[in-house]
Design a protein that fits this description.
Mean pLDDT: 95
Number of domains: 2
CATH architecture of the largest domain: 3-Layer(aba) Sandwich
Largest sheet: 8 strands, mixed
Order of helices and strands: EHEEEEEHEHEEEEHEHHHHHHH
CATH topology of the largest domain: Rossmann fold
Structural class: alpha/beta
Low-confidence stretches: none
Strand content: 15-25%
Number of helices: 11
Shape: globular
Distance between the termini: 43 Å
Strand order of the largest sheet: 5-2-1-6-7-8-11-12
Helix content: 40-55%
Radius of gyration: 19 Å
Length: 309
């Protein structure tokens, strides 16, 4: 399956390296000046180094892809979709492999529901240096599905098979949109607050003041989900909080949030996380004060880092 990965950051680098190592026909599209010809992988999935093909222009890709993986930060989604339009044909599948709410929705506006797949990514990776990526954690398979139920399962299974053959644990998931929202709730509760305080997930859960804030964030999200008839894998906020503190945080309690690096660069994915919750709430005139203040604080800290550069 001829594949193009738009966005060769940490997650994109993992996809590119693993697919290339198994001899798959794959190219990465990066920002100008970020092209690379090799990637070294470290971490829990083993260590290897492979030559890779990347370009900063869609016109540098020598084939029409059957699959385009979008793995950019949420604030670059629209630009990535425009790039995908330059290289895709009417048979190309678009796989959204990103955090947050709104990326899949933007993609189906451009390509239609019958072309767009959604992936819930729950493995973690860090960029060590220009050519090295470290796979740090994997909580579950990459779950791939079609929220619209308009794409033949056989086509989705081919993507799942591609990833599994490359060594990236993956599965077909009919309820992938629920799993995405499970992750959105998790990220909204932990990522921004951890970035603001520059601390670990475990510390956030241990400190009564931050735990109270996280509880409020979670409760507000479930209120908005109910209003919009959005389903997660949990019936209510209380059920989710029990799992959150007892099962989800302990394996990653020593982890710092990925947003911490982004906030120090002056640009985060807050608009696709708590910002998306705040936007949905505003459209219905519903107050979500905890999510609102988190958004304002993150945006303030972004500006502080930009001004101090």
């Amino acid at each position: 399956m001829r594949t193009v990965i738009i966005g060769v950051g940490a997650i994109g680098s993992v996809f590119l390296a693993f697919l290339t190592r198994k001899g798959k026909e794959v190219w990465g599209i990066t920002k100008p000046g970020k092209e690379k010809n090799r990637i070294r992988v470290k971490g829990i999935w083993g260590e290897f180094e492979t030559a890779v093909e990347t370009t900063s222009s869609p016109y540098g890709v020598p084939f029409t892809p059957e699959l385009v993986i979008i793995s950019v930060k949420s604030f670059d989604t629209q630009k990535a979709l425009e790039t995908a339009k330059e290289i895709a044909d009417k048979e190309t599948l678009i796989l959204i492999a990103q955090n947050g709410y709104g990326n899949y929705e933007k993609a189906i506006e451009v390509f239609g529901e019958e072309r767009v797949l959604l992936a819930r990514i729950i493995f973690g990776a860090d960029i060590v240096d220009e050519h090295t990526v470290n796979v740090t954690v994997c909580a579950d398979d990459v779950a791939i599905g079609d929220p619209s139920k308009k794409i033949e399962r056989e086509k989705i299974e081919k993507v799942v098979e591609l990833f599994n053959e490359a060594g990236i644990p993956s599965r077909y998931e009919e309820e992938v949109y629920k799993l995405l929202w499970d992750k959105i709730i998790y990220n909204c509760a932990l990522n921004p607050l951890g970035a603001l305080l520059e601390t670990t997930y475990g510390n956030l859960a241990d400190i009564p003041y931050t735990k109270e804030i996280m509880n409020s964030i979670i409760e507000e999200i479930f209120k908005i989900m109910e209003i919009y008839s959005i389903e997660a894998s949990y019936k209510n906020a209380d059920e989710y909080k029990k799992i959150f503190y007892e099962k989800l945080i302990p394996p990653t309690r020593d982890h710092f949030p990925s947003m911490l690096k982004d906030i120090k660069k002056g640009k985060t994915e807050i608009d696709a996380l708590n910002g998306a919750i705040y936007k949905l709430a505003t459209e219905k005139n519903i107050p979500v004060p905890s999510n609102e203040i988190i958004v304002r604080l993150v945006k303030a800290k972004e500006l502080l880092f930009l001004h101090n550069k």
